Amino acid sequence: MRKKLLLAFIVGSCISAASAVSSSDLIQAHLFPRSIYFNNQHANKQSGAFELLNYNGSVYVPLRYMAENMGGKVHYDEANQDIYIDRRVNNLTKAEISVSKQADNFMLNLHSEKEAYKSNEIIHLWSSLVYLGEEEITVGHGNPIILFSVRDEEGISSDEYIETVLIRDQLKKNNEYKATLPLNVIESYNYNKKGRPDIKKFLEKERSWQLSPGKYTVRVTADFSIDGDKKDKIMKSEITIQVEPQ
């Protein structure tokens, strides 16, 4: 098996940092060409982007790759050489704000963990679409069926990307779709607010998934069709949150 020299802090190899390296900082590890699975789903390792390494019986994987595939975000503070990992924890959460909109046999709910967040906190909103009808129906929709958007007081906004596929589901009474505000929607908003700069520099310089102090409107849109109806059904609901200095 081939061998390769690497920095001792290889877990952060996906984060660029300029520093002097002496011979005492080097270790020897083995390439470890294996597959990675998240919840039994094979992960795309982006062939050639990085290698798995085996050092003293432990497998080393780039920190950013692992964190982002588990729903987290990573930022490297080059000035202090610190690494920040932010991710939502799926604990039981109480909503301080909730809104619900009903249209025919559907209820669209939107919840926010807090009314006011600190600027260094993860923004946590979630939504659900519930079918209330008695008869079984078939619905068609894109992916995802519930879409989030973020807008500030100046009108700068970002919308969640929808995959243009047709998914058909059979629904019975009280069947429910659930979704959580993706952090990349906030990243996209911040990118727009900064005037769409060089994407690499933008992602390296700040924790781009956090909102700066201000007032924001978070909207959810459920867009779907029901077999037998001539028009698509579009439902919307929104919540206003405040972000305060940390």
Give the quaternary arrangement of the chains.
single chain
**Percent of residues in helical segments?**
10-25%
The biggest sheet, with number of strands, parallel, antiparallel or mixed sense and barrel status, is:
6 strands, mixed
N-to-C span: 50 Å
Q: How many separate helices?
A: 3
Low-confidence stretches: 1-20
Overall 3D form: globular
H-E order: EEEEEEHEEEEEEEEEEHHEE
DSSP strand (E) fraction?
A: over 45%
C-alpha Rg (nearest Å):
22 Å
The class by helix and strand makeup works out as mainly beta
Find the count of extended strands (DSSP E, 2+ residues).
18
Average the pLDDT over all residues and give the rounded result: 84
Q: How does this model look, in words?
A:
By secondary structure, this protein is mainly beta. The model is unreliable at 1-20 (pLDDT under 50). It is built from three helices and 18 strands. Strand 5 (53-55) and strand 6 form a beta hairpin.
Describe, in short, the structure shown.
With 246 residues, the protein is mostly beta strands. 10% of the residues lie in helices and 47% in strands.
Question: Topology of this protein?
Answer:
Blueprint (H helix, E strand, L loop, with lengths): L2 E5 L18 E6 L5 E2 L2 E2 L10 E3 L2 E3 L2 H7 L2 E6 L4 E6 L9 E7 L2 E7 L3 E3 L6 E7 L5 E16 L4 E3 L3 E9 L4 E5 L2 H11 L5 H7 L8 E13 L6 E12 L2
Parallel strand pairs: 11-18
Antiparallel strand pairs: 1-2, 2-5, 3-4, 5-6, 7-8, 9-10, 10-12, 12-16, 13-14, 13-15, 13-17, 17-18
